[in-house]
Design a protein that fits this description.
By secondary structure, this protein is α/β, with parallel strands linked by helices. It has 2 domains: 146 residues, NAD(P)-binding Rossmann-like Domain (Rossmann fold, 3-Layer(aba) Sandwich); 172 residues, 3-Layer(aba) Sandwich (Rossmann fold). It contains 12 helices and 12 strands. Helix 7 links the parallel strand 6 and strand 7. The longest helix is centred in the C-terminal third of the chain and has 19 residues. It starts with a strand and ends in a 9-residue tail after the last helix. The C terminus is likely disordered.
Length: 330
């Protein structure tokens, strides 16, 4: 009997079709018995005896893989790979698959929603009213500001497409300026941080993007500017961001992902920081696509069928060299 440990939660709540797919393929599965993101220690204790991990963002380390000698496949529900030790997986002959396109639309849409909330002070007005203060906030429209998009991949491109419907100027930064249907101005990062009224981040987390936005970058920004992080925790230096917000050096921020989750750090007490619990991909349709895609990858792998969503060789090369092409200054 092939056994799969489903570590990501929730799973199957939108629609049980992903679980049905495993049932039909004769895969015995166990859904995360703790009901939250697992620690490394918890995963080490749970993984023995399983052939497949249908995984979330929990740390899938060399130690975890050593504890699960039967493990043959890690099938990520989502796109981020920073929690998976790819080189350790390769050394043990463990295949790694993911669902890179499934969450993109949901993340892009929430990014726009956060941008609108920051520019119009929606989160501030909501808090004020609950505290008995009735004060209308005069904000800005997306059509009247300059938005800087750092990382123009699957999600960044979608963000640009949505932004273009509002009007306004869009600055873009990536390794190589690519052809887009929407009008953008390609700039280097310092120019983007200096000129943008709102900066939104869409890069993977690697050594070179860790603390990509720190004290230096925040100091470049205008005092009425905003920053949004819906990509990966660790891309923004949370302590530096908290200091910049408390000192009024930037006007506000929206943060969906954190270096340590669940998050309970100092940004919780900063009223100009809009905080969400790593929910950018959590629309019903995109969550279902992620879950179903991960289950499909598992079933295909176990039945010897070709996988279309195996992690590409470039990810292993990047991890081995610890340099990601998209993170090089353009």
């Amino acid at each position: 009997m092939i056994r799969a440990l489903i570590t990501t939660v929730p799973f199957g709540q939108v629609d049980p079709v992903s679980l049905s797919l495993l049932d039909e393929a004769g895969v015995e599965y166990v859904v995360n018995p703790i009901g939250r993101r697992l620690t490394e220690e918890e995963l080490v204790s749970l993984v023995p005896g399983f052939d497949v991990l249908i995984a979330g963002t929990e740390p899938i380390t060399e130690r975890v893989m050593t504890a699960g000698p039967q493990l043959r496949l890690i099938s990520r529900v989502g796109v981020g790979l920073d929690n998976v030790d790819l080189l350790a997986a390769r050394a043990r002959g463990i295949a790694v698959a993911y669902t890179p396109d499934a969450p993109a639309d949901a993340v892009a849409e929430l990014t726009i929603g956060l941008a609108l909330s920051l520019l119009r002070g929606v989160h501030l007005a909501n808090t004020a009213i609950r505290q008995g203060v009735w004060k209308r906030i005069q904000g800005r429209r997306l059509a009247k500001v300059t938005v800087g998009v750092v990382g123009v991949g699957r999600i960044g491109r979608r963000v640009i497409r949505l932004l273009s419907a509002f009007g306004g100027q869009i600055l873009a930064n990536d390794l190589v300026p690519s052809t887009l249907d929407e009008p953008v101005r390609w700039v280097d990062k310092p120019t983007l941080f200096r000129e943008a009224d709102l900066v939104t981040l869409h890069v993977p987390l690697t050594r070179l993007t860790r603390n990509l936005v720190g004290a230096k970058e925040l100091a470049m920004m205008q005092p009425d500017a905003f920053v949004i992080n819906t990509c990966r925790g660790g891309v923004v230096d949370e302590a530096a961001l908290s200091g910049a917000l408390r000192d009024g050096r930037i006007a506000g921020a929206a943060v969906d992902t954190f270096a340590h989750e669940p998050y309970a750090g100092e940004l919780v007490a900063v009223h100009t920081c809009l905080i969400t619990p790593h929910m950018a991909s959590m629309s019903a349709d995109c969550r279902l696509k992620m879950e179903y895609g991960a289950s499909q990858n598992a079933v295909a792998f176990l039945s010897g069928q070709p996988l279309h969503e195996l992690v590409p060789e470039s990810e292993y090369t990047m991890r081995a060299s610890d340099v990601a092409p998209e993170e090089v200054e353009s």
